[in-house]
Amino acid sequence: STLHLVLRLRGGHCQVPCGIFDDPKLVSDIMEAIATIKKAMVQINELSATMNALNFNQMTRWVNTKEEHASKIISLVGEYCLCQRVKPVADPKTPFKSEADYIAALQSHHMVMLGAMKCKQTVDPANADALESAAKEMSKMYMPA
User: What is an example of a GO molecular function annotated in this UniProt entry (predicted)?
Assistant: First the structure.
C-alpha cells in the first residue's frame, strides 16, 4: 500500500469547512470504537452461555453499544474522511499524486466501512480483528510518518 506516502491532509471536520481538523483524534476515536466493539463481542458471547433475565438485559445493552460504535465508525469514515479529506485527483486540494493512490485510498476507507458493518451483523471477534486491521491501514493517511 502507498497510503503512508500520502501527504498529511488539510481541511475541516465539518462541511462548512471550518478548518478545524484533528487527524490523530480521528484515528484515536476509531480505534477506541473498535476496542469497544471487541469488548462487546466478548461480553455478548460470555453472557449468552447462561440465559436469564439479567444476562439478557446486559446482552441487549452490549448489542446496542456495539451497534452504536460501529455506526460511529461508518459515520466518521463517510462524513469526515470521504466527504472532507479524500479528494479526486482532479481537485486542486487533493493529496494524491495519481489516480491509483486515490483509488487505493477509496478502497482502504471502504474496507473500514465494510468491516464496521460486518461487526454490526456478527459477534465473531475475527470480524473485529479484520476491522482493526483495515482501520490501521486507513489510518496511515492521517498520522505523521
Answer: superoxide dismutase activity
Q: What is the pLDDT of residues 66-122, one digit of tens each?
A: 999 999 999 999 998 998 889 999 999 898 999 999 999 999 999 999 999 999 999
Amino acid identity at 52: N
What is the per-residue pLDDT across 135-144, written as a single tens digit (0 to 9) for each?
999 999 998 8
**41 neighbors 70 (Cβ within 8 angstroms):** no
Domain locations in the chain? 23-138
Give the cell for residue 24. 490523530
Orientation angle between helical segments 99-121 and 53-75, nearest 10 degrees:
170
- DSSP code of residue 78: I
CATH classification of 23-138, choosing from 1.20.120, 3.30.70, 1.10.10, 2.60.40? Answer: 1.20.120
Q: Is 24 exposed, middle or buried (0-12, 13-18, 19+ CB in 10 A)?
A: exposed
Rounded Cα distance, 133 and 66, in Å: 18
